Amino acid sequence: MSIFADIQTTFTRRDNALNQLLVINVLVFAVLVVLGAVLYLTGSSSAYDILLRQLALPSDVPGLLRHPWTVLTYAFTHEKFFHILFNMLNLYWFGMLVREYLGDRRLVSLYILGALVGALFFVLSYNLLPVLRPGLGVPMVGASGAVTAVIVAAATLLPDYTFNLFLIGPVRIKYIAAAVVLISIAGINGANPGGQIAHLGGAFLGFLYINQLQRGRDLGRPVIAVGEWVNGLLHGRPRLRVTHRSPQANAAASKRGGLAQPPQEEIDLILDKISRSGYESLSKEEKQKLFRASQQ
Fold this sequence. Notes:
It is a multi-pass membrane protein. It is found in: Membrane. It holds the Pfam family Rhomboid. GO terms for molecular function: serine-type endopeptidase activity. This protein is mainly α. It has two domains: about 5-230, Rhomboid-like fold (Up-down Bundle), CATH 1.20.1540.10; about 250-295, no CATH class. The protein is about 70% helix and about 5% strand. It has 14 helices and two strands; from the N terminus they run H-H-H-H-H-H-H-H-E-E-H-H-H-H-H-H. It has a two-stranded antiparallel ribbon. Strand 1 and strand 2 (about 170) form a beta hairpin. Helix 8 packs antiparallel against helix 9 (about 175-185).
């Protein structure tokens, strides 16, 4: 199967949001690398700068008003190999957890909201903080703000989940998230203060998103609604789902922002399966049900 067929399969499969986010980032990076090389060899490097300005988030308000779409495009744009490498690795590791427990749509809405709040923190910092005013106009690219939102969200959702880190061993993800936040704070007085502040904006959104979801408020609903509207335009009709629930189940779902609680019988069966085969034997749906039950 060709690369193009693989890419097409990625975007035609349902419940594949994490891979789609990864592929979009990699495709944009690959296109920029190829165009940058071609434009350099043809003596048209200035055209590359013009192209990048259409994607990078400007820190000055006039520039942002001229390029409002950059509040999202910057979060899918990378120029340096190690920048995209570490962002995509973190997105994959932590995005898998969010996707398993909250589903594809909430992963996408978390990524988008993290990008938007990161952009907000970035622009406000350069326009309101006197120490950063000399750098006003500096652009930003990279998914770090959105990825930090996913990292902190996963740590807020499952603080004691453990990753086995190379040369370190098992580490609870709440400590990984704390380290990410501390590194961003420490980097504010470095070469990229606005970018580090954008990371903190993403971290704030990640914590707030899960905190509010557990209280029954889904901050990602507007993002999901826009996605469904765009999907309806592309496919010619909205996607409809028919469900049959008791009034009690609907009330519970409403209280928890759509996180309907599974019956106790199902939870008992899942717990029995864990006792027999371990947690890793659970399917994605079983893990989501177990998480929803833990929120009662």
